[in-house]
Amino acid sequence: MSVEKPPIKAFPVSWDQFHRDCRALAWRLSGQAPFSGIVSITRGGLVPAAIVARELGVRLIETVCISSYEEVDRKESLIVLKDIASSLTSGAHANGKGILVIDDLTDTGRTALVVRKMVPQAHFATVYAKPQGRPTVDTFVTEVSQDTWIYFPWDLDLAYVAPMSQKP
Asked: Residue 122: how many CB atoms within 10 A of its CB?
């Protein structure tokens, strides 16, 4: 059994920075073919999907809800709690054609791979990408190292932070 090292680097992201990064993602996506709908991977993809939808003028937004559970043998399994509506996986959108899938982060890429099976022709975009997950997305804004933990604005509160240097 292999034990992964816990993340040792922290990357706190403020609301202002996250909004700027989401707009940068929209700017990168604006050069792509027009998207007729967005699928947000919940929960992390909800905020970036709203910002990108506004910037690109997309009105049709759907969610796919996936949760990870840690099993007895310490392996993480992904459970689809809510599938993508059939209106975005059939007809003119068969296999995800013309659909943009958005998440906040691709870490290992496991979630993106599950969704990609549902909509293989969709365009996948994330705000942040780690090296292991990077091959699973088509567009992202910022790459961070695999050992970095991103603290999103909805996970943070204002508090004193000690300096990195322990010198007086």
From this structure: 25
CB 123 within 8 A of CB 136: no
Residue 21 among the catalytic residues:
no
107: annotated active-site residue: yes
User: Is 16 among the catalytic positions?
Assistant: no
Annotated domain spans of the chain: 10-155
pLDDT at residue 108 above 90? yes
**Token pair belonging to 68:** 């990870």
Query: Tokens 């979630």 sit at which residue?
Result: 111
pTM summary value: 0.86
Work out whether strand 99-106 and strand 123-129 pair parallel, antiparallel, or are unpaired: parallel
Q: Which CATH class is domain 10-155?
A: alpha beta
Tell me which residue of 157, 152, 156 sits closest to 46, measured CA to CA. 152
